[in-house]
Write a structure and sequence with these properties.
Elements (H helix, E strand, L loop, with lengths): L6 E3 L5 E3 L1 E4 L10 H12 L3 E3 L7 H13 L9 E6 L6 H15 L4 E6 L27 H13 L3 E7 L3 H8 L10 E5 L7 H9 L3 E5 L22 H9 L4 H10 L4 E4 L4 H7 L9 H8 L26
Helix pairs in contact: 1-2, 3-4, 7-8
Length: 323
């Protein structure tokens, strides 16, 4: 196993590469950028690609993967691909149709990992973020255990290798784990996690249940105007982080990623710049000593860049709980 391909074993026996490439595209990022970025990531050596139906980057991911397969650079089985069930498709009878839309976009007959994107169902329809005439989100009532059963059926049908969740709190995970007739446990919980929000309680809980924690916003978010407060702190400018980076002759991004990896977290990194994409893959070339891990752990502020305001009025809004 090359250093670029370090992997973590999931509770269903499959392996997930410890470092993945994220493909979320803020509205302000021009079309074509995600395709270019995924091409660069695959060329640099990333083999774990994370997308979602709602990101509207699945077709870019498909184009990049197909071109690399055609060029003989990768085979389909070399790629670990994640996509996600969007909130407007959480009714059990709609789960498979959303997955099939994603598979069509991705030009694939299966994905490696399929996640429930949020535990917050929204009114089905054409809009990703449906609202009433007053601009209030139109929410839906669906039992997440019923949604989970439909996810299990997708796995049984061979459309996905592994199934998991995203943005769930420990109480919501517990509901699935205690579901009568549970067939498959979630393999992972993908959540916001970084130096300012180190998720230590949720990480401990997930480890105790053999559920892998996957970190998004690992470098402190791309700060999309629609979702992130522009006055929020820029993580990679943190003076303590920059001091540790200087000491190890590494970039602040490499230190921020390495900190999470050493805690047993699978990490998603995103960049549109070739030098940064290559640099992020070098995180397996060094290790942080325990004293630096302790210093970095002290940066936690329980600060969330992406509080998902569209779901805040839902009884299943996950971020009201401590973890």
């Amino acid at each position: 196993m090359s250093s670029k391909q370090q992997s973590v074993k999931l509770n269903d026996g499959h392996f997930i590469p410890a470092l993945g490439f994220g493909t979320y595209k803020p509205e302000e990022v021009p079309q074509g950028k995600p395709l270019q970025a995924v091409n660069l990531a695959l060329e640099a050596g990333f083999r774990h690609i994370d997308t979602a139906y709602v990101y509207q980057t699945e077709k870019d991911v498909a184009q990049a993967i197909q071109s690399k397969i055609a060029a003989g650079i990768v085979k389909r089985e070399d790629i670990f691909l994640t996509t996600k069930l969007w909130c407007t498709f959480q009714r059990p009878e709609m789960v498979r149709s959303n997955l099939e839309k994603s598979l069509k976009n991705l030009q694939l007959d299966y994905v490696d990992l399929y996640l429930i994107h949020y535990p917050v169902p929204m009114k089905p329809g054409e809009d990703f973020f449906p609202e009433d005439e007053d601009g209030k989100p139109l929410l839906d009532t669906v039992d997440i255990c019923d949604t989970w059963e439909a996810m299990e059926k997708c796995k049984d049908a061979g459309l996905v290798k592994s199934i998991g969740v995203s943005n769930f709190n420990h109480r919501q995970l517990e509901r699935i784990l205690n579901k009568p007739g549970l067939k498959y446990k979630p393999v992972c919980n993908q959540v916001e996690c970084h130096l300012y929000f180190n998720q230590s309680k949720l990480l401990d809980y997930c480890k105790s249940k053999d559920i892998v924690l996957v970190a998004y916003c690992a470098l402190g978010s791309q700060r999309p105007k629609r979702w992130v407060d522009p006055s929020s702190p820029v993580l990679l400018n943190d003076p303590v982080l920059c001091d540790v980076a200087k000491k190890h002759k590494r970039s602040p991004a490499q230190i921020a990623l390495r900190f999470l990896l050493q805690r047993g977290i699978v990490v998603l990194a995103q960049s549109y710049k070739e030098n940064e994409i290559k640099e992020n893959l070098q995180v397996f070339q060094f290790e942080l000593p325990s004293e630096d891990m302790k210093v970095l752990d002290g940066l936690n502020k329980n600060f969330r860049y992406a509080p998902a305001p569209f779901g805040s009025g839902h009884p299943e809004y996950p971020f009201s709980d401590e973890f």
